[in-house]
Amino acid sequence: MPDSEIRPFIIGMGGDSGCGKKTMSDNLASIVGEENLLVISMDAYHKWDREEMKTKTITHLNPGCNHLELALDHVKQFKEGKTVWKVIYDHATGKFTEPQKTEPRKFVLIMGLHPYHLREMRDLFDFRIFLSPDEDIRKRWKIYRDVKKRGYTPDEVVKILADRKPDSVGYIKAQEQYADLVINYFALRDLKERATDKDMGVSFIYHEDPKADLKLMKKLFEDRDMYAALQGGALTVTGGNSKKDVQELADVLFDEDSCILQKEVKWKAGVSGICQILLALELDRRVC
């Protein structure tokens, strides 16, 4: 397809099923504006739909179960500002849609199980994120989502997690090494149900030099009576912050004419707000 005038900033987001990719993509959209962010779920590149998968002995976590070369071709086209025709995997039905016209935007987020499996695809990303919540948190998130939204029973989800464990470690967790930034959620107390912001802290672990000044961020968090620890390239923060706290941080850190922030960002409280501010800072320093 013909090139557009847009040359997108391409963001990768990897992580296992139920790790919080949709929530983090919503955080990104709240920063840059939905009209500026194209979100591509790599579930669209599964080879088989839900019914067909029941006849297979491998899982979607296995790279061989996915059209990764097609995904690579589409990322190349988005990088060049081209329009792509692609299907969407509908989790409500377990089936693929008809191909849809998909045009690039200022930011393109490629999120899924295997964004970093192919070296050639890894090299196309301008910023690589990997979500790695503690396993108990991910388990509870996945059970809640798959029962509420995808029609599974809790026992079915637990069995799926157990069956997929080898592939999870061997194919998904192994990609963490390729990320520029790993985001780890951890529980602040014993969990009885799905973890929410009040139950968690978050660590931002940078595999390359961060664009943000982490010493400054630690001080700014502590000035708002938040716990913050800095060890090498890892900044750990716990929640308890209000929306106002995050808004005040944004006022300090960003110019009014920031090239990435939408005009009226709806800053959030708790861990989500912490993620918003640190992701926004990283994007701002990389793009502007």
Give a topology summary:
Blueprint: E1 9-14, H1 21-32, E2 37-41, H2 50-53, H3 68-79, E3 84-86, E4 89-90, E5 95-96, E6 100-102, E7 107-112, H4 119-122, E8 127-131, H5 135-150, H6 154-172, E9 181-187, E10 200-206, H7 214-223, E11 228-231, E12 234-238, H8 243-253, H9 270-287
Parallel strand pairs: 1-7, 1-8, 2-7, 8-9
Antiparallel strand pairs: 3-6, 4-5, 9-10, 10-12, 11-12
Helix pairs in contact: 1-9, 5-6, 8-9
Short description:
The protein is an alpha/beta fold. The chain is built from nine helices and twelve strands.
Distinctive features:
two-stranded antiparallel ribbon; 12 strands; alpha/beta; 288 residues; globular; eight-stranded mixed beta sheet
Structural class: alpha/beta
What is the succession of H and E elements?
EHEHHEEEEEHEHHEEHEEHH
Report the principal-axis shape: globular
CATH class type of the domain at 1-130: Alpha Beta
Helix coverage percent: 25-40%
Assign the CATH superfamily of the domain at 1-130: P-loop containing nucleotide triphosphate hydrolases
Average pLDDT: 93
- N-end to C-end Cα span: 28 Å
What is the β-strand count? 12
Largest sheet: 8 strands, mixed
CATH architecture of the domain at 1-130: 3-Layer(aba) Sandwich
Radius of gyration: 19 Å
